[in-house]
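Handout, section 4.2: multi-component inputs.
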Amino acid sequence: MSTLVIKDLHVSVETKEGPKPILRGVDLTINSGETHAIMGPNGSGKSTLAYSIAGHPKYNITQGEVTLDGENVLEMTVDERARAGLFLAMQYPVEVPGVSVANFLRTAKTAIDGEAPALRHWVKEVNAAMDNLRMDKAFSERSVNEGFSGGEKKRHEILQLELLKPKIAILDETDSGLDVDALRVVSEGVNRAKETTGAGVLLITHYTRILRYIKPDHVHVFVAGRVAEEGGPELAERLEAEGYDRYLTTATA
Amino acid sequence: MTSTVDNTEGLTTDHSQATADAAHTHGTGGGVQGSRADRLTSFNLSDIPVPSGREEEWRFSPVSRLTPLFADNLVSPAGAVSVTAAPEVQVEVVGRNDARLGKAGTPGDRTAVTAWNSITEATVVTIPREAVATDATYVSVTGDAQQASAAHILINAKPLSQSVIVLDHTGDALLNETVEIVAEDDSHVTVVSVQDWNEGAVHASSQRITLGRNARVKHVVVTFGGDLVRITPDAEFLAEGGDVEMVGLYFADANQHQEHRLFVDHAVPRCKSRVTYKGALQGEGAHTVWVGDVLIRAAAEGTDTYELNRNLVLTNGGRADSVPNLEIETGEIEGAGHASATGRFDDEQLFYLQARGIPETDARRLVVRGFFAELIQEIGVKEVEERLIDKIDEELEKSMSVITGTQA
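Output:
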């Protein structure tokens, strides 16, 4: 049982005009086995929350704390956070030319586990996970994210989720750019990872359609850098019908 | 910009990968350069004077450090040249008047002409007609740090032969060298020149290649060591159907100058050339220069050429000059293009890898190995490939200690 606790998190980014606050006091608690959806309009700070937790150097934490099972996440380097059990499926995965998917996955698994996986078992596991995500075997010989289609990049992110088995997974707009079939395949992958590892999931999305495949226990509406409303799955249904206009008028009022 | 490309139908010029960067020049500021066809070449010392450093072919070079090699009385024979040959391959040491010498191209700059005029003897490696060498042949060259000296090596691949020759430069040196590669009709030869000098070494090498009918040459340059290394590979097609693949990898540390100037002369129809050079730089004063001249003369219909240079700047304080230069005198060609790009280490790649639990040092190693990976596989000589991977790791340890603040 793991718990990620985010308390009063304030984050800003450097701009030419000086520091610009993006998150203005975020409180969230995610336990193993739970699925939290964070929804909100563009520019509300959803992705900033994801990258701040992962430790991207662009974001400055100005206030608040983030702990995983009581450990101070904000004091950890990016790789330490991943080894502690955090995972971020990125919206725009980065190309790494000349590094094969197979080499990358094995290197990451070795780093996370602290020892190299037993070769035969590992190859089997990778092949099975790729099969489940309808990924061709030849995929593992390609360079990481280089020349991948949008759908291939997202499958590759979820492949890592399944293989690295984090305690808490943050999915940043994993649904963007996916057609209906790919969305279903990717969602099945997330559900499988949840079932087998009991991971807690923080699902960041603009749209409700992914929530037809991945059922959230909690829905948080993000507006102007903080949680504006919280509820159960019914809140997502209401957003589907009404959109975000209601919050935006309040926010600017 | 020294890149000159005629706007003839059927040409492709890929400049899409080029990025503007302070550590990257694109041939600006050098004044107007004449056609490569007009460059003076000669075996006579007096025709090519000591350069001032303002000449097109010397403008990137620290000429003062090369001064000893401009002298007309270099010591010969230089250091030691020893050969471990494949059983099918013949090795001789011959006097400077041997009729086989000086047949591949003509010296085109001061160091090339002083090297030619200084030598008293040369090492000739012959791959006999139809011979298929069962092993790589290793030519080991060491020099002398005190005496400016000259060496000459001729690699003669007779018709229908197949071979791999590795030139291995190690130790100390103040060396001015000529390497002639004569690939006769239908021969296949791979020549790998490794510059793994000790600190302090200064090395100039004119590597002149001629290709006969349907000859195939793979020319690989690997430069790591030495204070100053300047290699000028020239490839000249003598008959139709020639195919040259020129590959280079270099890794420059603080205050190292590594210069690679290539010239591919398409003078006859239906030949193919591919040039791919990649380099990494780290440390204050690391300087790399890549100049790729390709000339497609009017007679060279059906030419197919492409050249690419990429540089990866790992730390602040380095400078990569990259000048592709394509001259086209006929539109009746298969294809002609070039690409040049110099970039800094991508922090987003680092973040992505670290976000998967991979520590920073390992992540950097992955990225740099990845940058060179495809070229390393191109070398085709396993021993050299493995040594190269070890060298890259060794070099990275140095920059890592700068980044992490630990002692190497």
